[in-house]
TrEMBL record:
This is (Na+)-NQR maturation NqrM. InterPro entries: NqrM (IPR007495). PANTHER family: (NA+)-NQR MATURATION NQRM (PTHR40691), EXPORTED PROTEIN (PTHR40691:SF1). It comes from the Bacteria.
Length: 74
């Protein structure tokens, strides 16, 4: 039981330290490998012919961008 408590305390300490770092720097935690961009993949779904769900999502995003551009004051 003491091992579990010690592991929990150490994990909690790391979370507290990461939170303090976030509040001080105002920068989110991010990976160092570059993610999918490092592999030359522009998006998570890099298919030539996306599925229907993806097509609907892309159409909704485009519609939202057009609406924002139309309603933009500046």
């Amino acid at each position: 039981m003491s091992t579990f408590i010690a592991a929990f305390v150490v994990l909690l300490l790391f979370f507290v330290l990461m939170s303090i770092g976030y509040f001080i720097k105002h920068k989110a935690v991010e990976g160092s490998c570059g993610g999918l961009g490092a592999l030359g993949i522009e998006k998570a779904c890099d298919c030539d012919d996306p599925c229907d769900k993806r097509k609907r999502r892309m159409a909704a995003e485009e519609e939202r961008r057009e609406k924002l551009a139309k309603d933009r004051i500046i």
